[in-house]
Design a protein that fits this description.
Elements lengths: L17 H8 L2 H9 L14 H7 L3 H9 L14 H8 L2 H9 L13 H8 L2 H8 L15 H7 L3 H9 L13 H7 L3 H9 L14 H4 L5 H11 L4 H13 L14 H7 L3
Helix pairs in contact: 1-2, 1-3, 2-4, 3-4, 3-5, 4-6, 5-6, 5-7, 6-8, 7-8, 7-9, 8-10, 9-10, 9-11, 10-12, 11-12, 12-14
Length: 274
Amino acid sequence: MLAAMLPTRKGSWADRSPLHDAASQGRLLSVKTLIAQGYNVNALTIDQVTPLHEACLGDHVGCARILLEAGANVNATTIDGVTPLFNACSRGSASCVELLLEYGAKAQWETCLPSPTHEAASRGHSDCLELLISQGIDVDQDIPHLGTPLYVACISQQKQCVHKLLHSGANVQKGKFLETPLHAAAKQSSAEIANVLLEFGADINAKNTEFERPVDVASPRSLVETVLLLQEAAPCSLCQLCRLRIRNYIGKAKLHLIPQLQLPTMLKEFLQYR
């Protein structure tokens, strides 16, 4: 699981301003007063933490709004690359995430900065994840030391986030290097997540770097091993294969348009796994 922004170096709090303290404690009136007195809304600690970082980590949306209205840098990064959006996703503050995005927060970075998407997925904050997805992020963003958001959600056994990512078109086969999300579910003995991945077309024969299939990494005689063995004995139905083929043809970027297809409601709901 990804760690939230925490002070790790001695003295990192020594240069905190009163505005940092007020924002971290959610003292809205104090934040307003300090700004009126001329305190810099972009004041940095030695670790380049801003008051906005503090407000978002504490889920203090009122303080965050005041800071942003006063000119706080919405994409400020600490020396570890942490943004206010990452902190909001770490805390699970959907209100702060929505506010930051409204003020132009970058939902996804091309570099391997700490990823808000991976953080939300790993902690099970599906509301935050949904807001990020609405910004058109790449749900298959692969960070070398983490893998994809789907893989992270499977490792952390965050069922809602797994569902959210798959329904948004996440590639069910993309995990971490050659290890698939199904490998992750098998390792964590999560039969429910394994079932969902199989329903979305996960390959039970995919091999990781150790040439092991998901069933090979499952605990012997576990429920998830049973699920995988049953899948081997009873492959996907023609109906299921058709659904996967159609969704793949539509492409993840246009899955949200399925409700507009000129098809019976029952078929549209089938394509949307409803």
